[in-house]
Amino acid sequence: MSTELWKPQAALTRRTALKMSVGATAASLAMPAYLRPAWAAGKSLVVVNSGGAMGDAKRTALYEPFTKKTGIDIITVAGPELAKIKVQVQQKSVEWDVVDLLEAWVPQAVRENLLEPIDAKFVDTSKVVARARGTHAVGGTIFSGGIAFPTNRLKPIATWTDFWDVQKFPGRRGLRTRINDTLEIALMADGVPPSQVYPCDIERAFKALDKIKPSVSHWIAQTAQTVSLIQSNETDYTFTYTTRVKDMQAANVPIDYSFRQNILGVGWLGVPRGSKNRDGAMQFLDFCLDPDRQAELTNKSGDAPTNPAALAKVEPAVKRWLADVESPDNLFTNAGWWDANLEALSIRFKEWLLT
Q1: Residue 289 belongs to a domain
Q2: N or C terminus: which one in the chain shows less Cβ crowding within 10 Å?
């Protein structure tokens, strides 16, 4: 990794330990979570998702309708991990057929030949926006993250510059324990327009983070805590996702969300190379791009569809939670930039959090 990315600021032993801990975590997650019996080959698809409410929404909107249409059963496994895909492919023992992929994983997965190419005989990617068309993955949803705040004790804030202004907007801050998203947030807070965030000015971002660090009450690892900490009055302003605030409001929690300077990302789907039911998996990918399926998934999850034809079918109460993907005020994450920088910056950020 190029030393130009950052200058060492701590002892080599700490940095080495951090890198080893990252590697050990990946290794511990490498084994498949489900082993398919021989009789199920060709009759079922093992689909790996993130579980929780989104997993439930996908079961109703995608999995059950696909089985009804094709007769192919969907077996779900929670906990997609790039390391697990890599081990299965390298050992030529692939037990997964379709995997939900974080946007930051896709460039590496393609570079390391871990995914099947999208087969145009089965998958019509023209149905979705250009940003969701990949050579080895398709985008099924668009999610958005921004600022959440309580409505019963503090005044609302709109932008990341407001978030950083603790004099004008006093209160406890919450940010994530990961550098991706956090780096972009810091640059926008420091006045960088969304269109100029990439390539990221790393040193400027860390200087901005130095300014907000004393006001951060919680560095948050679990997404659910981004809103639960506001609910329990343990923090005030946090980075979270529209779907989390939407669900909290539905439960009558006094919380709201700013649609300014949102960070947008695509939720991808891919087929691990060597899938035992490749053709069925490709059929499933195409099924996930259908406008009716996407509209139902949006209505149940709150994430935006990638097929524009689905928008007309989205319920008005849900549509108001969808970020404007065309707004220059919002920022789509750049997976290619992170592919080249994530490892080194993750180590630097972990060191920074310890100081």
Answers
A1: yes
A2: C
Instruction: Calculate helix-pair angle for 278-288, 291-301, nearest 10 degrees.
Output: 70
Which pTM does this prediction carry?
A: 0.83
- DSSP 8-state class, residue 148: E
On whether both 222 and 287 belong to a single domain, the answer is no
Residue 75 has phi, psi (to 5 degrees) of -105, 120
Contacts of 99 (CB under 8 A, 6+ apart): 47, 48, 80, 85, 269, 270, 271, 272
Residues facing 218 on adjacent strands: 174
| Single-letter amino acid code for the residue at 155 | K
Which residues is 263 bridged to in the sheet?
145, 331
CB atoms within 10 A of CB 351: 17
Reported as a single tens digit per residue, the pLDDT across 317-330 is 999 999 899 999 99
State residue 43's pLDDT score: 85
Q: Is the dihedral of CA 19, 24, 27, 29 positive or negative?
A: negative
In the DSSP assignment, the letter for residue 92 is: T
Q: Domain containing 246: what range? A: 143-264+329-354
pLDDT tens digits, 266-322: 999 999 999 999 999 999 999 999 999 999 999 999 999 999 999 999 999 999 999
Q: How many domains does the chain have?
A: 2
- Are 56 and 129 contained in the same domain? yes
**What mean pLDDT do residues 152-168 have?**
96
- Is residue 333 within 8 Å of residue 105, measured between CB atoms? no
Residue count (the chain)? 355
* Torsion angles phi and psi, residue 143, rounded to 5: -105, 160
Tell me whether strands 138-150 and 255-257 are parallel, antiparallel or unpaired. Answer: antiparallel
